[in-house]
Structure formats: structure tokens, C-alpha cells
Amino acid sequence: MRLRVNVASEGDEVKLLDASPEGAVGQGGHVVVSGVTKTFRRARQSRLVLEKIDLELEAGEFVCLLGPSGCGKSTLLNIIAGFQRADQGKVMVGGRLVTKPGADRCVMFQKPTLFPWMTVLDNVLFGPRAQRKRTKEARAKALDLLLAFGLSGFERHYPHQLSGGMQHRVAVARALMNQPSLLLMDEPFAALDAITRARMQEFLLDLWERERMTVLFVTHDLEEAILLADRVCVMSPRPGTIHHQAEVRLTRPRSQATVESLEFLELRRAIRSTIKGDSQ
Amino acid sequence: MKPVETREAAYLVDDVGAESRMEVGGGPQRTGITRLGRKLGGILAQVTWVALGLSLGVGVWQAAAVILGSDVIMPGPATTFDAFRYYMGHSYPTQGYPLWQHAWFSLERVFLGFAIGVTVGIVLGALMVAIRPIRRTLDPLVEAMRVLPMIAFIPMFVVWFGIGNQPKIVLIAVAVVPIMIVSVVAALDQFPEEMVNAAQCLGASRWYALLHVRIRGSAPAILTGMRLSMGVSWGNIVAAEMIVATSGLGYIVLEAGLYLQTALIFAGIISIVVLGLLCDLVLRLIQRALDPVRREPQR
């Protein structure tokens, strides 16, 4: 059974998020990472996790960071998010230097990290409330988002009463409340079963087609990276560097059917040959 | 590539929703009456088990009384109940207070000491988590306090605070503080960092995230510490009242012992148990209200 919720009549280009003066494709989503170096120090040992990372994301671009576990891709994402500080180098998002976490850059983790003591609606309203914004408008917007994400009727449920896919959709709705110009996603679907995961990928693609915010998506799954991204950045460990970048020019909108196309397979073979794993 | 024609203005919604609704059994389509019926059924089953356990205990007690065959050595349930009823209306000792007033005195001391101890413990615990040097300094002290039997200090408390209510309240507070510190520190430490990070990138300030996410999210675990503390409070108040007091349940249990009023000893002990359980029940209800996961029907 497939439920479909229409947010607008067919063909209508209605956005869920209010258009900002510059639009989502304005300066807000432009990301420049320059010369970022990070070393972890643990009793007598120091490990160079990231070495002189340079990376630029155009506003509205969908970029995947691909690499084996331990290559520093999550660390890079955390630095862009503002959770960790770089030892050297700097990160600019929308022309502003990143020094701490901010509502313009929303992070989605592997777990949905919903607050278990809040209902679905309260979770979605967390951002506006934390920033002491007018809750009446925020409430209407939250209900719209939940409706569009097929979650209406579940506003007063608690997170543990929802399935994994639904929890992730609530997390996305919660993130979108702040109209972030940059979504940072740290293997968000890695813990889901294959079917739910494929659905979440389509959901994300659909959302991105509509809103065109900048997305930086960390994954260790090559197929996921190609399916979603405009550009795949391949990272290698010890020290973490981006050693290869591949443009993905597959036509959009994409769906799971894209995975079976010939272009996809060729691209996969080409990128796979550049991945340096832990074992090599 | 095949064009997907249904994607225009619709977000795809998987059917996981329907599946989960069935799992939960509390979805939007469930009517209030069936839910109420289910709840009543659950409560009824729980009451049945409690009644079964209680009657088993009373049965063993009655059997022991019959076998020993003496109301002084082993007063049975009926004798104890008679003593309980009698002293609810009559003072013990003769110039003292009726049983309910003794119970009230004990409850008052426990409540005040517990409230002070819990407040101090939560504040100190939160400070220890937030500020590293404070934690380093207080850690060994807390560890030492935890193994120390506070009741050993009661003579000193009497010297410092007299023989009124204060030494007992202080004793309970001092006994509760280390337990609360340990459980608050553990609760805040265990709280997933990711959740605090998520709050911050949703626009919460550090203080907002600390208060509304880390502390609020740890509240159910802190309540567990409070339940432990409540048990310790009752243990300490009874001991303190046995050593230095002219009122309270601990006092009458000791006093009745001196005059071999064994039925009254039992009545006093049962009053302590009932009050202790009631206090725990209140805390459990608060814990359930704070934590939706605990509100799920037990399978």
C-alpha cells in the first residue's frame, strides 16, 4: 500500500519553506572549507585525522563525502557544523566564519535524535521555541510539514511509538522548521533496513528537488552516494584527505530505477577503483 | 530510464505508518472506550497480583503466629491490627501521641531532609558535570561520604543542632546528598551528546540545551536516584528516632520493645513500610509522567 499526500495540486511549484529574499539558492548555502587540519590527541598518541582539507560547495549543491570508516568524514562534518574546532584552517558558510553550532546549518545524525519525552509536534517545534520565536505561526508551519511528510495523525505520538522511517521524517521536519540553507547529514540512513532506506533516499531526493538547499551527505555506501549526489568526494584515511572528486551527471529527478541504468554502473565502477579501503 | 510520473507534487509516504499504527495499538483510529477498557483490565490484573503476594505474606505470618502460639513472641496479623486500631485513638506512651501523629512527625522529618538533600545533590551533581575542577575536587569526598554510615554522626548532630527536629533532618539530608550526586552525575554523563548537539544546531543556546535537553532528558534517571534516596531516608529516620527522640515511628517501636508491647512493634513497622511504599509510589508516578516510554502497557 502506498499513501500519497498531496501538498499542492499537480504541477504546482509550491515550496514548503517560505522563499527567503535570495531564495535557498542564495548566498546562505555557499560553503568554503579551506586548509582544515585536525589532530586527535590521546595520552601519548596523536593521530592526524584531517590534513589540509579544501572543499567548496555551491549553494544548492548536493555533495556526498564517501570513504571507509575512520577516514575523518564525520569529523569534517562536525567541524562544518561547529561541534568541533579545526586546529588549522577555517570554514565559511554563507560568507560567515563558523565558530559554533547554528540554526542555519542543520545536522542529521545516524539516529534521528528525537527528544523521547516530547511528542512529535513538540519535537518539530523545538527549534522555534529554543529561539523564542512566535509559536502560533510556527505551529501552523509544523502541522503543514507533518502533513506533507505523511505524519498527520501522529502529532501527539511519542517518538518510540513510531517506526524508524517515520522517526527520520520527523527529524527532517524538525530540521526544516529553521529553514536551514545547509543540511549536514552523517550517515542518516545507515541504521535503517534496506527497504525503509530506499524510501528515505527517495524522500530526500524529492525534498531536495523541491527546496534546493545545500546538502553535505556523509556515507560509506558508494551506490547511495551516486544515487543522491551532484558530486562525490572520495576520502582516504590516515591522514584524512579528499583524494578524488567525481561529478555525477545522471539526469534528475532520480529514483531507485536510476541504480539500474548503464551510466550508473559505469560511474560506480570508475569511482570504486579510486576508493582506498582499510585493507589496501 | 523510466520517467516516474507520480512525483510532481506529492511526497512519497511509505506504508510503514500503517504498520506502526497496528504495532502501537494507540493510533489515531482507536476509540477512547476500548483504550479505557484495556487500561482498566491492566490495572485489575496488577491489583490481582499484588493481592496474591500480600495474602501469601500474611499467610506465612499467620502460620508463624499459630506455630509459636504466643502473642508476645509472635503477634499474628489480627492481634497487630487490634493494636494498630487501638493506638490510632490512644496516645503511646500515655503522655505521648497517638500512632498517626507519630507517623506524621516521621513523615515531616523525612520530607524536609529528603527535599534539602535532593536539592543540594542535584545542584552539586550538575556543577560537577559542568565544571571539571569541581568534579575532581568533590569526587573523593563523595566517594568517602557514600561508604560512611551517616547515623554514626548522630551524637555530633545532637551536639550541634539539639534534640529537636533539626538533627534528624540534617542526618537525612547528609545521607541523601552523596546518593543524589552519584546518580545525577551518572544520569547526565550517560545522556547522549548527540542529542545536545542536535538541540544546538536547531538554534538552542548552551544554557537552553543544558536545561531543556540534558537535564530534562536525564530527569527519569534522576528520579531513580530519588527513589533510592527515599529508601535511605526512611532507614535513617527510624534509626535516628530510636537513638534520640520522644516522638516518631522509630521512637515508639523502640519504646514498645522496652515494655514488650510486641503487637505495637509490628504495628509501627508496618506503618513504616506502608509510608515508605506510598512515598515511593508518588515518585514512581512522577517518573512515569516524565518518561513516556515507561507509560507503555507492560507485556
Can you walk me through this structure?
The complex is a heterodimer of chains A (280) and B (299). In chain A, helix 5 packs parallel to helix 6. In chain A, a hairpin with a 2-residue loop joins strand 2 and strand 3. By secondary structure, chain A is an alpha/beta fold. Chain A is 29% helix and 25% strand. Chain A has a domain of 139 residues: P-loop containing nucleotide triphosphate hydrolases (Rossmann fold). Chain B has 299 residues and is mainly α. The longest helix of chain B has 38 residues. At the A-B interface, strand 1, strand 7, helix 3, helix 5 and helix 6 of A face strand 1, helix 1, helix 8 and helix 9 of B.
> Based on helices, strands and strand pairing, what is the structural class of chain B?
mainly alpha
- What do we call the CATH topology of the domain at 25-98 and 214-278 in chain A? Rossmann fold
By CATH reckoning, the class of chain B would read Mainly Alpha
Strand arrangement, major sheet of chain A: 7-8-9-4-10-11
Net shape of chain A: globular
Global structural class of chain A: alpha/beta
Order of helices and strands of chain B: EHHHHHHHHHHH
Continuous helix count of chain A:
8
Output the radius of gyration of chain B.
Answer: 26 Å
Poorly predicted residue ranges of chain A: 1-14, 19-26
Helix share, percent of chain B:
over 70%
CATH superfamily (homologous) name of the domain at 25-98 and 214-278 in chain A = P-loop containing nucleotide triphosphate hydrolases
Principal-axes geometry of chain B comes out as flat
Q: Please provide the count of β strands of chain B.
A: 1
CATH classification class of the domain at 25-98 and 214-278 in chain A: Alpha Beta
Largest sheet of chain A: 6 strands, mixed
